[in-house]
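testing teh design pipeline on a random one, pls ignore if ur not involved
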């Protein structure tokens, strides 16, 4: 198993600081929030992208994914969404990142319409992404928060340039067990986002293992040679504890869960 954390937990931090923290605490990669508030985003010039690669290489840290904010199931014209997807793919390619994260964003419209928007746009963008060595991952989030909902779209897209990002919080909020999420996502899965919270009503981020999310089951269901990415949402919850002091414990906790899953043969085959 390989480990990453999201820069959402270090809002606005310089890339060299994020990379140094990753290296110091045994994380293999960063998931970079691609927003103008952050050091890198789709409008970053080529010189900044090249400098970022040098910084990451010096630290021995890769970029797992570019976390974008395109909403592929949202109502409206396709062209702006496709343009945004292309800029995110180019940024990921320049950073040698294998993945781009996108949201569904299909709320307040019929399910069939939201699905159709997402299928059409992902099918159009997937070949472009594949040519750049990138896979666009639809996160289990908002209007498509379960693995079943994301798979309903991705099964219709049917292209290797599009896949799924499994956010364990949202599938849990959607009432889906980790085993069912993994089974639904199956061949679509890119990587898994882990986190922890106190309850469905209290979503302030906690250290891994300090809350109620079924992390042991999710890790056991994840591919043993895949990626686990800790998304600590400090940006949205400024009162949450600082992330740097928790990174070592978080990595140790995930390693323990991985070892436990390996010891029980847990690779998603558990009974419900």
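output:
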């Amino acid at each position: 198993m390989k480990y990453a954390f999201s820069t959402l937990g270090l809002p606005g931090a310089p890339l060299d600081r994020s990379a140094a923290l990753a290296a110091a605490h045994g994380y293999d990669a960063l998931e970079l929030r691609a927003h103008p508030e952050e050091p890198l985003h789709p409008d970053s010039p080529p010189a900044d992208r090249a400098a970022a690669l040098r910084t990451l290489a010096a630290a021995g840290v890769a970029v797992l994914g570019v976390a974008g904010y395109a909403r592929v199931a949202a109502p409206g014209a396709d062209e702006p969404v496709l343009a945004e997807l292309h800029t995110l793919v180019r940024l990921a390619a320049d950073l040698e990142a294998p993945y781009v994260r996108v949201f569904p964003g299909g709320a307040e419209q019929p399910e069939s319409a939201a699905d159709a928007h997402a299928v059409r746009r992902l099918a159009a963008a997937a070949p472009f992404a594949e040519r750049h060595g990138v896979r666009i991952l639809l996160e289990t989030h908002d209007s498509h928060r379960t693995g079943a909902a994301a798979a309903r779209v991705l099964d219709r897209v049917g292209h290797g340039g599009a896949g799924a990002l499994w956010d364990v919080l949202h599938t849990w909020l959607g009432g889906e067990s980790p085993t069912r999420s993994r089974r639904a996502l199956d061949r679509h899965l890119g990587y898994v986002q882990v986190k922890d919270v106190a309850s469905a009503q209290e979503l302030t981020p906690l250290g891994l293992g300090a809350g109620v999310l079924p992390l042991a089951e999710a890790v056991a269901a994840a591919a043993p040679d895949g990626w686990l990415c800790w998304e600590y949402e400090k940006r949205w919850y400024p009162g949450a504890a600082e992330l740097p002091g928790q990174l070592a414990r978080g990595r140790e906790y995930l390693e323990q869960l991985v070892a436990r899953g390996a010891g029980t043969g847990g690779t998603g085959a558990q009974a419900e």
